[in-house]
Amino acid sequence: MRDGQFATPPDHDTDLDQLAAAGVGPDEHDHVVVLSNVMDREPQSLQHVLLADAVAVGRLQDDRCSISSDSAGSSSTIARLLVARLLANWFAQEGYAIITDRMPKLTHGCQRCLALARNRRRIPRHRCAALWADRAWESSGLSVLQAMGMSRLIFPSLRYPIVQAPMAGGPSTPALAAAVSGARGLGFLAAGYKTVDQVERELAEVRSVVPAGVPYGINVFAPPGHGLGAAEVSSYADRLRNEAQERGVALGHPRWDDDGYGEKLDLICEQPVPVVSLTFGCPTPSEVNRLQSSGSAVWVTVTTVGEAQAAQRAGVDALVVQGVEAGGHRGGFDDADPGDVGLLALLQLVQAAVNDDLPLVATGGLVTGRGIAAVLACGAAAAQLGTAFMLCPEAGTASAHRDMISRDDAPTALTRAFTGRTARGIVNRFLRDHAEAPSAYPEIHHLTAPLRTAARVRGDRDGFHLWAGQAHALAQPLPAADLVVRLGTEAREALRTATL
Amino acid sequence: MRDGQFATPPDHDTDLDQLAAAGVGPDEHDHVVVLSNVMDREPQSLQHVLLADAVAVGRLQDDRCSISSDSAGSSSTIARLLVARLLANWFAQEGYAIITDRMPKLTHGCQRCLALARNRRRIPRHRCAALWADRAWESSGLSVLQAMGMSRLIFPSLRYPIVQAPMAGGPSTPALAAAVSGARGLGFLAAGYKTVDQVERELAEVRSVVPAGVPYGINVFAPPGHGLGAAEVSSYADRLRNEAQERGVALGHPRWDDDGYGEKLDLICEQPVPVVSLTFGCPTPSEVNRLQSSGSAVWVTVTTVGEAQAAQRAGVDALVVQGVEAGGHRGGFDDADPGDVGLLALLQLVQAAVNDDLPLVATGGLVTGRGIAAVLACGAAAAQLGTAFMLCPEAGTASAHRDMISRDDAPTALTRAFTGRTARGIVNRFLRDHAEAPSAYPEIHHLTAPLRTAARVRGDRDGFHLWAGQAHALAQPLPAADLVVRLGTEAREALRTATL
Description:
The structure is a homodimer. By secondary structure, chain A is an alpha/beta fold. Chain A is globular. Chain A has 2 domains: 13-131, no CATH class; 160-497, TIM Barrel. Chain A has helices spanning 16-21, 43-51, 53-60, 77-91, 107-121, 136-140, 144-147, 174-182, 196-209, 230-247, 261-270, 285-293, 305-313, 343-353, 369-377, 399-406, 429-433, 443-457, 480-497, and strands at residues 12-14, 34-36, 65-69, 96-100, 128-132, 162-164, 188-190, 217-221, 275-279, 297-302, 318-322, 328-329, 360-363, 382-385, 412-415, 423-426. At the A-B interface, α14, α15 and α19 of A face α14, α15 and α19 of B.
């Protein structure tokens, strides 16, 4: 960079009052910075813009919005500032942004420049993005991030770094996912246990509600390994037979299947979803690449340091780091080693074991704004909450299950009794009676399914799986969008008041 | 309050340069505020001073030190500012301070005024204190806090909200406690397993090193309950006999005792220690009161919401909230229910169940600055770290134990194999072989002690308890004072960069 190339003063400054008059209020954000009208230049010039950060940062300290324009025709600046709002939260923390006014062919160049800037100032990847800010994005049906080929950087586009955990088997619904994403958290569908047709219908339902460009996600079960053999499963079936007969229910057929893994991936590649998370295993590098090429960010759930390293090697975009506090299934790769590490300990260990710029989504026992603040302070890019959303009216949680989640005298435990795979649920009669159930998923899931369905239908809380995280008693029965805003506000306040 | 009573401008302002010239550098603190020379008035006036906070806060925003003096003779102001340094970290976060220039008889009035101010602005108790700032404190051997009868408010006087966990059985030494307190964290002695004479010698050693007024702590085991009976203990002894014979070691006598609880409390009441924490049970309200009356803050370790509520009812000054990630013994009241909740989940649950102003010290799996930042963001007043200090040269950790803590391929598990009480250690042969050891503490502790001592002496990592928290692999072999500063600095950075 030649000295002085970007030392010319900006054409004009716009203060926050002017932005507010244009409908770009500083309501939630302290700082907005835009470097615009730079696309007349070659990619090398973009790099130069990035190197001009010192000027921009200096202006940030005055709580002002500085607009540096190196060409005429900046009248559409205000329109572009709408896009800048997406960035403001994290840009204020030494992130970088390129906001341009043309659909560039220069995506690769932008990304390369960002990488250079990141390395120079050691900024995590989830704090950097290049955005395209022409008005066309609003009508294109593509998000700004998608338009820039940066769709896999989900975090900058969330207003609240709150992910609604996918909860297969009922609680997750299209309405819940849409409400959370609509509030600008990240809602999730759960493809597990569903047919491909059901998944397609649910995706269509979410797409019909969520505004274009607003991200949402879907969770897919990776094919499970093979657990213990037919003898153990058969022996467990014998222990269940009396109970089934008393209830007038036939046990299910204990078969192994892969939950339609291949077909579900095909569907998602044909109809891309902004985020695809995987549970129970790590996709192959080629599966990861295929999903990414079709526009999805790929996240993988991990419960141990070894799994985190394996997922990184597979090329995923983020890790969902699941602490032992989490409700429902342990999401790791191997039920023989389901992971027993608490969330904060695991976050610290994983951070030390993977690249600094691999975003971590923390999950397990997070139900309050303070809990969210804690994992953000620990370096997570977002917090994923499951049980916290189970009392929302949009959730499909069974009534007897809701009652138990609300109780503060209902301890949880890990068990294989219901599905043959380790999961955390509120302790009830079935869980206590079958503490020694073998590791054999999904065989035992299929075996017990009719028993559990019957119990749920008759409202018998002692007869089916009451998945819940350890802090379930703090869940609030609020509409999901209200809950996202409340949790986000509480988390912001917790971070504001924490000092040292 | 009559209008205008405190609207008179301050007599003078002193900026930070002047303070620096007086040896009161702004090195670590942003803001210093002193309200002095107010003790000529009645207690009602003190309340008025507190109500003048708006003026003080306004001046804080200029990064200036404003001194409001309503009488002549303020020449000793600079000396009193030395005391103000204790306050600065937390006062800058909307805390309140009264600093006076006479040893007041008005302690009760001060405390009442603080309570009013706290209620009005909803400030946690650990952010408020009244201090006495006469020069006499420097030579009195009492801390400022003790002189004001406010000795139980420990947290404002720590430079780093980092507590070194008491680690009975070797790792905790007077040198370790003194180094941590000297660095202005909070060092702890462990009275457990020691005679009263040993405890007295260790206390004397710490007092000889730690400057007057700098707090430190001691941990005492509450009397354990009675576990399973003699038959179970005898059966376990039979299983250990071969191993003992092979090693040429006689098993110990499996007796119950209370570890000298009463005598240790007597000692501490005669020779007060700033902080007394209790493990394995809750002291009675009269024991709590006796310790507090002699000048100690009383903390109790809890692992469940029920224990937290019981400790609050007993009148303790703070709770040590221990997550399941923690190394060593589960510190709760009852080994039949040792608590399996992860730290973040437990913190959120306890916060919802106890009074807002009861300070919580978070412990379990915290080894990094980010981990500390996380619990502070979650509302804890301080973080307590054990394993993080076990590799310090000042720690008495056995060599084979140090080796295992450093390894990143050494998982931990909960076990009763070594002591008959649930504890977390690195998995080794002894732990695996005796997974079914009964709950009988301290009988089994005494039974296995000779076996464990012999194994430690011969460096056999498979034969003794390798207590360690789940994130042990991240412990750093640094001098304790350096470690405190490093962790505190990292935690501060983590909080600074976390946003939402």
